[in-house]
């Protein structure tokens, strides 16, 4: 067992580098990719499908700086894997891929430690070189694909056809999103500890941060959360579970509508959150809002602290961007509304100023904002 001050032994060989890409199973990959390019500022990266000799799935990859999302749809109605997943979960994140530097050692170690290998090591090759992969099972139906790119020089993955430049959108403001900050997985009640232990045991991740329901609660609902990370702390995977409250928490709502554990939200890091949110709103993105009293209380707390917020508080308030801080620094964050009709996956935009937390001081405001939306859906 690791602790929040002890990472445990450094893995002997095999390093997790960063988030590589996230794969979504959706009903219409072409339209989903178009939505993310139009609303979220991504650009088409590549396509793999019938025209490239891939007969089962259409795959549309989009990119924004270091963030890559891949949307997959099945061509045939009797595709059991895709169809069963879509019927149960709706559109959602199926696979969170990690870039690694020694696939063989990581897979061998994961096997020895009891990981379920969905697909053992395989290779894919085209004119740009070879990429090696392996896939392991994590919580629910979610998987992690491990990606080793040492012998590949292409834009994304073998077999993906570049998208013509005339397909790129022009005239829309840039979203300024840089890389994946963290990916949050929701679990049914009392499943969080076993999932955290799986990351410790099978991937040799360690515990980085946590909160419980005594810290994070509203009048109606509460949560517990443990953040798991690799030894170098370049990949953060918060694991959430609901806690008992007067009414249904947004974690429980997610689990019920998703049909079990899965990726609840993806946090995208930016170095300029004000420009990012101004431009994303101009693109038509919808975000959760908090009442102005949040900022009245925040100003009082900041006046009593030694934290200097560089950004204009009036602009942050107008944009409904949340602020959390400690003695070392602060972070700014905001959350989109659900990215599909089911109240499941949403996105977060985050900017960090020497602050490695996850907005615990904002969880109450976030929960209350989500509870307003839950009440509209009749699910509170």
Automatic annotation (TrEMBL):
GO terms for molecular function: 4-hydroxyphenylpyruvate dioxygenase activity; metal ion binding; protein homodimerization activity. Binds 1 Fe cation per subunit. Residues 18-149, 179-337 form the VOC domain. One of its GO terms (cellular component) is endoplasmic reticulum membrane. Signal peptide: none annotated. It comes from the Eukaryota. Pathway: Amino-acid degradation; L-phenylalanine degradation; acetoacetate and fumarate from L-phenylalanine: step 3/6. InterPro entries: 4OHPhenylPyrv_dOase, 4OHPhenylPyrv_dOase_C, 4OHPhenylPyrv_dOase_N, Glyas_Bleomycin-R_OHBP_Dase, Glyas_Fos-R_dOase_dom, VOC_core. This is 4-hydroxyphenylpyruvate dioxygenase. It comes from Hermetia illucens (Black soldier fly). The lineage of its organism: Eukaryota, Metazoa, Ecdysozoa, Arthropoda, Hexapoda.
């Amino acid at each position: 067992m690791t602790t929040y001050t002890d990472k445990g032994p450094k893995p002997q060989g095999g390093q997790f580098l960063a988030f590589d890409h996230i794969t979504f199973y959706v009903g219409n990959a072409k339209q989903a990719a178009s939505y993310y390019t139009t609303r979220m500022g991504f650009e088409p990266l590549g396509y793999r499908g019938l025209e490239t000799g891939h007969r089962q799935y259409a795959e549309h990859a989009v990119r924004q700086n270091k963030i890559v999302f891949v949307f997959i749809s099945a061509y045939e109605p009797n595709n059991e894997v895709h169809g069963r997943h879509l019927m149960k979960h709706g559109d959602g994140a199926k696979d969170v891929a990690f870039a690694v530097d020694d696939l063989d050692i990581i897979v061998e170690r994961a096997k020895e430690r009891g990981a379920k290998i969905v697909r053992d090591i395989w290779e894919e090759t085209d004119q740009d070189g070879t990429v090696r992969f392996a896939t392991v099972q994590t919580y629910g139906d979610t998987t992690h694909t491990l990606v080793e790119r040492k012998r590949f020089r292409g834009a994304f993955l073998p077999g993906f056809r570049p998208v013509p430049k005339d397909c790129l959108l022009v005239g829309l403001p840039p979203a300024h999103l840089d890389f994946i900050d963290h990916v949050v997985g929701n679990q049914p009640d009392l499943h969080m500890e076993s999932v955290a232990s799986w990351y410790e045991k099978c991937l040799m991740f360690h515990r980085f941060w946590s909160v419980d329901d005594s810290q994070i609660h509203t009048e109606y609902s509460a949560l517990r959360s443990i953040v798991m990370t690799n030894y170098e702390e370049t990949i953060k995977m918060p694991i959430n579970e609901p806690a008992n409250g007067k009414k249904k928490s947004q974690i429980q709502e997610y689990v019920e509508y998703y049909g079990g554990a899965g990726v609840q939200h993806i946090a995208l890091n930016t170095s300029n959150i004000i420009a990012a949110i101004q431009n994303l709103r101009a693109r038509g993105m919808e975000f959760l809002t908090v009442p102005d009293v949040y900022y009245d209380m925040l100003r009082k707390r900041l006046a009593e602290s030694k934290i200097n917020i560089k950004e204009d508080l009036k602009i942050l308030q107008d944009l409904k961007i949340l602020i959390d801080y400690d003695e070392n620094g602060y972070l700014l964050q905001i959350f989109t509304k659900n990215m599909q009709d089911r109240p499941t996956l949403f996105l977060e935009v985050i900017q960090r100023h020497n602050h490695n937390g996850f907005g615990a001081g904002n969880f109450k405001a976030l929960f209350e904002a989500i509870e307003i939306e839950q009440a509209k859906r009749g699910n509170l």
